[in-house]
Specification:
The protein has strands spanning 2-5, 11-15, 25-29, 34-38, 49-53, 60-65, 71-76, 83-88, 95-96, 103-107, 110-114. It is mainly beta. The strands form 3 sheets. It has a 4-stranded antiparallel β-sheet, with no helix packed on it. The chain has a 4-stranded antiparallel β-sheet with strand order 5-6-7-8, with no helix packed on it.
């Protein structure tokens, strides 16, 4: 399994084992080992492939694959599973600098930086 740890140290997102028909995500709260949520096969969910957390763990970014095979970015609240942004172009999923917490991305419109929440 592929596990992604939040820089905040309190969350982990686990990508299901590839090779099956469904590769959804499970999010865990690490201090007490509680599973916050999991995507279940057959629940009419689009599998989320987690790629990064913000430094404070307030957003989990991942990729989903549409039926036509195109990938899209998705941002969710890892504690509640609330979708914060969907259908993001893959190149619009920001990179997060772990040391500073700043997010950044480059587009045809320029370089964009985002201050950490807080």
């Amino acid at each position: 399994r592929s596990v992604l740890l939040a820089p905040s140290g309190d969350l982990a997102a686990e990508d299901a084992v590839p090779g099956g028909t469904f590769t959804g995500t499970t999010v865990w709260r690490l201090p007490d080992g509680k599973r916050l949520w999991t995507q279940e096969e057959g629940a009419d969910e689009t599998p989320l492939d987690p790629v990064r957390f913000t430094r404070d763990g307030s957003v989990l970014y991942g990729y989903t694959t549409a039926e036509d095979g195109t990938e899209h970015g998705l941002a969710v609240d890892p504690r509640t599973r609330e979708v914060l942004a969907e259908d993001l172009p893959v190149d619009h999923v920001p990179r997060i600098d772990e040391a500073t917490g700043y997010g950044h991305l480059s587009t045809t419109d320029g370089f964009h930086a985002f201050a950490p929440a807080g």
